[in-house]
Amino acid sequence: MMSSLLFLLVSISFSLEIDNGKVKGSIIYNRTANSTGWNFLRINLESVENDEDVFATAGRYEGEESREEIYNAYMNYIYGIQGGRHFLPKSLQIYVHNQYNWLKEQSQSQNTPYWRMVKYLLIQLENMYEGYNYHYGKTEKALSFDQFYYLSNMGDLQDLWPSVGQVQTQGIGNCNSFYKPGIVAHSTFNVYQTMLRIYKSYNFKLKDKDVVNPHLSFTARPGDLESKDDFFVLWDTQMVVTETSFNNYNKENYAYFHYDSVPCWMRVNIASRLAKTPQEWTDIFGLHRSGTHNNQWVVTDYNKIFMGEEAFFHYKVHDLTNTLLASQGYVASYNVPLDQEIFDSLKYPKTTSYNDDVRARQFRIYQGNLKTVKEVGKLVRYNKVTAEFDACDGALSPRCDLGNGYTFGGIDGKVISQDMIKNKKVHLISSPSYQNHDPFNWKAYPNIPHYGMTDEWRFPWYEIDETNFTIKELYLDY
Ligand SMILES: *[C@@H]1O[C@H](CO)[C@@H](O)[C@H](O)[C@H]1NC(C)=O
Ligand SMILES: *[C@@H]1O[C@H](CO)[C@@H](O)[C@H](O)[C@H]1NC(C)=O
Ligand SMILES: *[C@@H]1O[C@H](CO)[C@@H](O)[C@H](O)[C@H]1NC(C)=O
């Protein structure tokens, strides 16, 4: 009895101090998704001489410690998003390899802040793969590097599949981002197979003085080095980065793809490490564009608010501080272009527009007098069926399982105010919205693969304190 209890405790929480002559720091990994909705990973490392050692060590430990979640996330991705296909179509394999080789060559031959970041990210990714395969390489859970890379490259692949005329899956994701002076909130929509999550906090003290954000946190998935669910906190410069994705209805846009480019998941990380202001962030993000994973990025330091809209041939940056924010009192993002040229280039249906989209209307109606973090968090997870709005199509946080049984919808919520960012706190929740509905339960869907997930999804909001990496339970989501 005692020993099995001990085993349980050991396997749920991992922590390690490191001081090996190359790096010093600590790693914490709490596998608490079944009890809180989130696993929590914190990697604090400082380099002794060579910054590359920080990224290699971080990758290695993350790959080893989160290997079980990585395998489960991989299987969930294959069955939830790639329709059971373990391999990319041949032409996409070639594209991904060419791009990877090009990134390696450029990052080895150019010693600039930008390309050093590319080099560091490749090192982190490759070491994470080695850590994973160190344990699983000789088992049935072994993955090739190509397969492992799907997890970080997921957003970019989302645009690459249709470019070769193939449907990856239906309804891959939409999101909300909302800003009211002093408060940022975001919620992600996806197939429920993507609910296996890790909140990641990387604090890397580097010799590289061009890195102005050593400490960044993001809501993520196992094996994914970016926030595919679109929420980053840059603690040093006190900025928040969110996005909502665009749909492409114009096949001609795929002609933009060129492998000599930096994929979106890397550009986000590079901009987040190097930018001091929202403007710098949107500028750096626009370098070496790949045209894959086209999004509306909303970046704020609670003073300025910038929007960067990317759509294949086009990239537009808007300072919304004195325009949309001043006129409307808030900025919302819901997968619809603001810029007309971007809207037209994607051939968005004429039945919608930035101002008249169904979620634009709901934000306008419901945001009214909301002031607190709790109220704004509730807003981005709102799901109220009325004569005008249904539970799936157009809800602020859809529950499509309640409509046609499709296990897709809003899966989380994240909120951070200006006070909270100063005090190193963030609020999050994981679960399809249960505000006006029964909680989602996998028991009703025994035939849909959902590796490593608990059945019932009715988790409360939590507050994370980044100063000591502890969590506090807050309240249920209603
Ligand atoms: C969480 O629950 C699922 C389903 O019961 C199980 O497969 C998985 O091993 C659990 N994860 C942990 C870390 O205990
Ligand atoms: C973590 O730090 C906060 C103060 O920021 C404190 O209130 C809390 O009790 C600490 N938690 C633990 C477990 O030490
Ligand atoms: C991680 O686990 C440790 C040990 O159980 C606990 O003290 C700490 O509060 C946990 N932190 C998070 C963010 O879950």
TrEMBL record:
Signal peptide location in the record? 1-15
Q: Which UniProt keywords apply?
A: Glycoprotein, Hydrolase, Lipid degradation, Lipid metabolism, Signal
Q: Which Pfam families match?
A: Phospholip_B
What EC numbers are recorded for this enzyme?
3.1.1.-
Molecular functions per Gene Ontology: phospholipase activity
Show the stretches that span the lipid bilayer.
Answer: none
Which InterPro entries does this entry report, sorted A to Z? PLipase_B-like
One example of a Gene Ontology biological process annotation: lipid catabolic process
**Purpose of the protein:** Putative phospholipase.
Return the similarity comment.
Belongs to the phospholipase B-like family.
Name this polypeptide is given? Phospholipase B-like
Organism placement in taxonomy: Eukaryota, Sar, Alveolata, Ciliophora, Intramacronucleata
